[in-house]
Design a protein that fits this description.
With 86 residues, the protein is mainly α. Helix 1 runs parallel beside helix 4 and helix 3 runs antiparallel to helix 4. It has one domain. Helices cover 91% and strands 0% of the residues.
């Protein structure tokens, strides 16, 4: 019973930090690197199982940055079209 509660708590923490990583990565690259770097350091110091969370945070960071770049590119194209229409 205690083992399953610990897994549930770990999953909740993982999801909460994943959401926090998403919003930090949206703010900027430097802010988005905070949680993955902290996870790598803690995984090296504490336990190897934390590499799973490190991988998740890094994937969230990379996907958020790619999404932001695509949005910026689309916005630039729309701005160019609007300027040309005027």
């Amino acid at each position: 019973m205690i083992f399953s509660i610990n897994i549930i708590i770990l999953c909740v923490i993982l999801i909460a930090l994943g959401v926090a990583e998403y919003f930090l990565a949206k703010k900027g690259i430097i802010f988005g690197l905070i949680i993955p770097i902290f996870s790598v350091v803690s995984a090296l110091v504490i336990d190897k199982i934390l590499f799973i969370s490190t991988f998740v945070y890094t994937v969230v960071f990379v996907l958020t940055i790619i999404r932001q770049k695509d949005k910026e590119k689309q916005q630039k194209e729309l701005d160019k079209m609007n300027i040309q229409d005027l």
